[in-house]
Amino acid sequence: MVDDELFSLSIEVEDALARRRPIIALESTVIAHGLPAPQNLETARRLEKIVKAAGAVPATIAILDGKLCVGLNDEQIRFIAHGDDLKKVSTRDLPVAIAARWNGATTVASTIWIAQRAGLQVFATGGIGGVHRGSGRDVSADLPELARTPIVVVCSGAKIVLDLHATREWLETFGITIAGYQCDELPAFYSRASGLPVDVRVDSPLEVVQLLKAQRRLGTLSSLLVNGPVPREAEVSAAAIERVLEEAMAQARFRIISGRDLTPFLLAQMSEKSEGATLRANIALLENNVRVATEIACALSNNTADTF
After folding, report:
1. Sequence-ordered strand ranges (E) for 118-183
2. Which of 67, 96, 107, 281 could form a disulfide with 8 if both were Cys (CB 3.0 to 4.6 A apart)?
């Protein structure tokens, strides 16, 4: 049972939990801080439509007036897309957000924390945070949350602005199983391959369910990281990515941008310098990951009685 003073579950989510219907958790930072207008609102609505069309329930997660909201209506999604003074809320910020009655968009870390405690089992996003380029001391809160929150996370690897090799090592060190969905290499966000191996290849939703079943029997507390590559038609070549990323990082250094503001800045700069190619890839991989996650959630729902 969730704490009603902390959580606000939509009627659709409450009904789906009671009936054991498939639910897909979705983050709100991508709406508030990850995509520009008007693509942010359009994409948020489209992702929810993809989930519904496949027979599942979308649960976009955000902080509204200090409440952990699981499942937003269209008016709330519009507010997240266009609201003023919307905080970016990671796990460490949750106590402050509740006490100060913030309105905020949840990161990967805080979204999976909220989703898992609300009873959701599958989360879809674009890319996870990771180890930043440079000294290796700047590590996203997404990583430790993945290490301690048992939920299926469908993504396209870590965001390309990060150190993918160091992030892959971090995930291995902390025991997070990395599955490649119909691929043998860890995707590189906008590009389909990174040269980094996955731990296991899975080619169907049922294979993901079997992995999850094994995790639960073992008592594993970490997430199951399912990585799907960007659709081939939307892929941006690794060479083109490195070129625009170097230019974006030079701009960040010139403007002294760092911390939680760095990744959104770099992604926006890369979209501008690539004439929108990276933005199109970002939206395409988001949509694809939501489709894959919904298929997994439906397979999980069909196997719930036997599995858990």
Report:
1. 122-124, 152-155, 177-181
2. 67
Separation between Cα atoms, residue 164 and residue 169, nearest integer Å: 9
Q: Of 36, 44, 38, which Cα lies nearest the Cα of 272?
A: 36
> Strands, E, within the chain: which ranges?
7-9, 23-26, 57-64, 67-70, 87-89, 104-106, 122-124, 152-155, 177-181, 200-202, 224-227
Those residues of the chain that have pLDDT short of 70 are 1, 135-136, 304-308
Q: Return the biggest CA–CA distance within the chain.
A: 57
pLDDT of the residue at 138:
87
Polymer length in residues for the chain: 308
Nearest CA among 2, 21, 7, 19 for reference residue 294 = 21
Catalytic residues: 27, 159
Q: Please name the amino acid found at residue 165.
A: H
- Element containing residue 108 per DSSP (H, E): helix 108-118
Instruction: Report the pLDDT value the prediction gives residue 129, as an integer from 0 to 100.
Output: 95
Other CB atoms within 10 A of residue 279 CB: 20
Q: Give SS3 for 297.
A: helix
Say if residues 114 and 68 touch (Cβ distance below 8 Å).
yes
Q: Which residue has the tokens 């809160």?
A: 141
pLDDT at 304: 61
